Amino acid sequence: MAIFVLLENLTALKKKVFIVIVTYNGARWVDKNINSLLQSHYPVEIIVIDNCSLDDTVVLLQKYKEIEIIQSDENLGFGKANTIGMKEALLRGAQYVFLLNQDAWVFPDTIGSLVGVMEKNTQFGILSPLHYSSDGKNYDQAFNTYLSRAYSDLKDINTVTVPFVNAAAWMLSRECVEKVGYFEPLFGHYGEDRNYCDRVKYHGFLIGINHDAKIIHDRVIKRNLKKDIIQSKYKVLTTLLNINYSFFRSCMFGFKEVMGLPKYFFKFYGPLIAFRMFLILLYYYTGLLFKSTTIKSARKRARVYG
Known about the structure:
The protein is an alpha/beta fold. The chain is built from twelve helices and ten strands. Strands 1, 2, 3, 4, 5, 6, 7, 8, 9 and 10 form a ten-stranded mixed beta sheet that branches. The radius of gyration is 20 Å and the shape is globular. Residues 4-12 have low confidence and may be disordered.
């Protein structure tokens, strides 16, 4: 009898964790994604925001009575859709919110490991697991870059601190979200996670990667000019919105991005396309400066949110 009482008390002490997943035409991942969460050793509640999928995503999701589905009548993009889920989670008492990509799945101990670390070190606003590629053996290509930029190693909790990690699998504390706010709506798709990390750092939280937790991120990164241009534009916007610098310094760094990004892509696309990219980014950058009131308002909003 005493054992059962102890188990009940331990369950009561568990922090309330909400999973937020944004889906769009992700039918092929639904079962692996949702089943992995239902098999989590740590109890979770799941909110899915569907961005008006055109395939069978919603039909497949509806098989799972344990999850809540919020259907958008348009594709809101990554940030705006996640914001809907984050707000709903906090309204329902979430102490932690775990953002998970539709093309990723967790292991039974993933959620518990992340919560355990964040409970031990409340400075972490964002904590990520290790991201493995679909083979389960090698790190996701982009994630490996972020991991290589770790600047401190907290051996007692098997965690490193990093300046940035992509939002494919973010555990956020309630305190962080309440202080930092939600995703900046100026972003469409790409760049919003970098902007959020900049704001997290400004408000004094740490960003980390825990080596005891992992996910599989089932994607293949392919070079695509249209995507590279969009991401480059949002990289410039992220720099202008970086509240860790003065507006003047952010503008200076933004112009360096306009110059530097085409140089980086030169090796992939050659001189003509790199020059075209420079002109596109210069035009975009100039347009943002003409809308400096909007930029300054976003910067002010990011500073004073919490």
